[in-house]
Design goal:
By secondary structure, the protein is an all-alpha fold. The chain folds into 2 domains: 1-30, no CATH class; 36-152, no CATH class. 60% of the residues lie in helices and 3% in strands. It contains 5 helices and 2 strands, in the order E-E-H-H-H-H-H. It has a two-stranded antiparallel sheet with strand order 1-2. Helix 1 packs parallel to helix 3 and helix 2 packs antiparallel against helix 3. The radius of gyration is 24 Å and the shape is rod-shaped. The model is unreliable at 28-39 (pLDDT under 50).
Length: 155
């Protein structure tokens, strides 16, 4: 138990002010659980998980608001992985539209199967990356992590 620096009364370890005299106390101790929080009081593993929550959108948000290296890694990887999948699905969708106008429903089979596989890949990556980030791991998606390092620089 800590003591007030002004009156000497016993105060709780994480108290901001002394209950007896009201004097402000020195900086509160670090949060429990081993995770160090910043001004936003969000643990790194939670911020890393949130980088993947809404695909590249939350990755972009955390890229600009949180400068901790671990969070930056997850934000950059989220932008590259899910931004890349979004671009690929958009381009593939254009091919599906063009093939539909060119040959009718016959051209939709292969492209439709490919779109389904891309969607499945995105969902699997989304779940795996959120689980790994919540555990505090920096799981590197093989091609995307290297590409993120080239685009944004190493975290």
């Amino acid at each position: 138990m800590a003591h007030c620096t002004k009156c000497g009364a016993a105060v709780a370890d994480n108290a901001g002010f002394c209950a007896a005299c009201g004097a402000p106390q020195s900086a509160a101790s670090a949060p429990q659980g081993g995770a160090v929080a910043t001004q936003s009081q969000m643990a790194e593993n939670v911020a890393g998980l949130l980088c993947y929550l809404f695909w590249w959108v939350t990755g972009l948000i955390f890229f600009f608001i949180d400068k901790r290296p671990a969070v930056q890694f997850h934000a950059k990887q989220s932008i590259v992985v899910f931004g890349g999948l979004t671009i690929i699905r958009f381009v593939l969708g254009m091919f599906i539209g063009a093939s539909f106008f060119a040959v009718g429903f016959a051209g939709l089979g292969a492209f439709g199967l490919l779109m389904g596989l891309l969607w499945l890949l995105g969902v699997v990556l989304w779940i795996v990356l959120m689980i790994k980030a919540s555990q505090g791991e920096q799981f590197r998606v093989p091609i995307a992590a290297d590409l993120a390092d080239k685009i944004f620089g190493k975290s």
